[in-house]
Amino acid sequence: MRFSTFLTAVASLAVGINAYWLEDVQHQGVAPFAGDGYKVFRNVKDYGAKGDGSTDDTAAIAAAMNDGGNRCLQGCASTTTTPAVVYFPSGTYIISKSIMPPYFTQLIGDPAQRPVLKASSNFQGFGLIDGNPYFTENLNWVSTNVFYRQMRNFVIDTTAIAPGTAATGIHWPTSQATSLINIEFNMPTDASTVHVGLFCESGSGGFMSDLTFNGGAAGASLGNQQYTMRNLVFNNCKTGIIQLWNWGWTYINLQFNNCGTGIDISAPGADNTLAVGSAIILDSSFKDTQVAVKTGYTTSTKPDTAGSVILENVKLDNVPTAVEGVDSGSLLAGGSMTIAAWGQGHRYGSSADRQFSGDIAANTRPASLTGDNGYYSRSKPQYEDLAASDFVSARSSGAKGDGTTDDTAALQSAINSAANGKVLFLDYGLYKVTGTLNIPAGAKIIGEGYPIIMASGDFFGDINNPKPLLQVGANSGDAGQVELTDFVVGNKGPAPGAKLIEWNLASDAAKPSGMWEVHVRVGGFRGSDMLIEQCLKKAGSSTIDPNCIGANMMMHVTPKASGLYMENTWLWSADHDIEDKTNTQITIFSGRGLYIESTVGTFWLVGTASEHNHLYNYQFANTKNIFVSMFQTETPYYQPLPNAIEPFPVTASLNDPDFAASCSGVAGNCAESWGLRIIDSSDFFIYGAGHYSFFNNYDTTCSTVEAGENCQSRIVSLENVSNINIYGLNTIGSVSMLEKDGSSVASWQDNVNVYPANIMLYRSG
Ligand SMILES: *[C@@H]1O[C@H](CO)[C@@H](O)[C@H](O)[C@H]1NC(C)=O
């Protein structure tokens, strides 16, 4: 224990509170490419922060963030080489200027006694936490390339700033594999307040949960491609959420108390259009609020489907107007009642009448997918009730995590020793693994700053015989529960036979297993040996470089597995080199994204994404009872050179799509990755989907309206299914938005939205 930690521990004991285990465990994270002596873990108190409610701690916190010299801030495009976990013990930290966390930084507070970041009255900056600063007129990082960061367990307080002075709690234009969790924003409640708790103007998210906004002109002002946000509370905000723009968004379990307007999705775009694509509001409540939802959608607004909305299971208590149209007045009267389901937009499948506005049938939810207050959910475990002695360190168990040592045996032994009632702490590092790691029932693993476990070597070399890297449950149907949090799996060198996660475990629907912020990253990072040097993009060539095949399948859920809750998981085959100064594009091949073939079913995919996989990003077969909130995919940028017919052989036992057969007679670029394919399955409840195809062989012309949105012919396929319910299907660059049993259900031209095309309601029957 370092001296300052000792003092903190003594102080905590004096008031009868133990510090968070993360503060007390040994800090042994190693960043092998960051230079000798580089520290991954930084306690702000070790850098002089007092947290005493009076000292200005700005410089000390910045020193903790920037320690190490080569951290990625102004002018740096992105990196995975210099990670940092910046820890804040409980206390009140006075801040007079924005804290700017460099790329690949986690900010973690003590969850039991959340630290308060309090702005001084003379605060200067755009956000107490400025997650992507404007050093120039542009954001420092391209917001769609801001990955791998999180912030959790804080109170953000702007109440010392005059209510009429502009103030922002957190500025957070970021993308996949990021999160804000368990944060309270305290702002003035004066009528004159112009404060905003959370401001996000762009990016490709994402996930957030467990945020409370008190006061302010707006709790959250949000523009981004897509998001799942859940468990947000808004008290005494003039407007809870101002939606600046989006392509699609799913809100789950929001609570509004005493606000003027709950959610405003009526924002105008250029030339008399709307800026907001669509929103889904699920399992939420509005109390003592004038207008629950303000919308701009009418039958004549443009684009045709912009501003589409669905509310399902929304409770009103003293809410005069449930839905108000900016130009059309009250669309749905309020009162005190529960709205089963109501919406506006385009629909297919259930009715010949394409346009709808009004009550709709609510989904009939399977009991196995529901919890106390709507669909089941569980926020990520932080183990705040445990002590440091409850954790087993991977590095103390002999694993090196240096990117070159074979850590297979040491990691397996660490997993086994922790599985006996402890939690495995995966210290930051790059762990090279040359065989299968078995994760038995009962295992709990939590990473420090997104460490990565990499499949490497001949064991993963056979494209015809894939082998698992992480195998959860040794045999399909093994019973029990597993919790995996905050780490990444990927590859080091070619791994055409790597199945990065194989999920065999059968968990009780009432006690599911969970994966929270567990990501897949194939290529594109230092240590993967698949960067510009090896895999620079080859525009105009269909050559498949065997040295750039990084995975066979990202995640496979086998037939007897069941009961898995996945939250904020991003399965990414790299499209660019994260370490490169200009994020130059690279060509990496990964065969398959997430494949679920569980006959038992019962899976929750909450804010997940799967990108640039060759055959499909999501495929489901012979399964049922699936809950999805806003999943997002991208087709590989190189397709159709090569197209999806090579190099991964069609494997019948995996129900692979056979493009050579199914594309016969289909015009355009047919043999391209499916965003979503569901076969021989039933009972899906999809709340938000974004399936994007932006490129033809690295050229984006095909995804424009002028070019005909023809990057690929088809992108979503339902084959022999029943009771598939989709709210908010968004597609980009695909001529057909949705295929059923080989025929197109809808084309993009009939459903134009702000950038994607949108079908707000689809039921397969
Ligand atoms: C259709 O799917 C069901 C499962 O939902 C399966 O039992 C049946 O065999 C499938 N039919 C065909 C023709 O594949």
Automatic annotation (TrEMBL):
CDD domains: GH55_beta13glucanase-like. SUPFAM superfamilies: Pectin lyase-like. Pfam families: Pect-lyase_RHGA_epim. Keywords: Signal. Residues 41-264, 391-462 form the Rhamnogalacturonase A/B/Epimerase-like pectate lyase domain. PANTHER family: PECTATE LYASE SUPERFAMILY PROTEIN DOMAIN-CONTAINING PROTEIN-RELATED (PTHR33928:SF2), POLYGALACTURONASE QRT3 (PTHR33928). This is Rhamnogalacturonase A/B/Epimerase-like pectate lyase domain-containing protein. It comes from Xylaria hypoxylon.
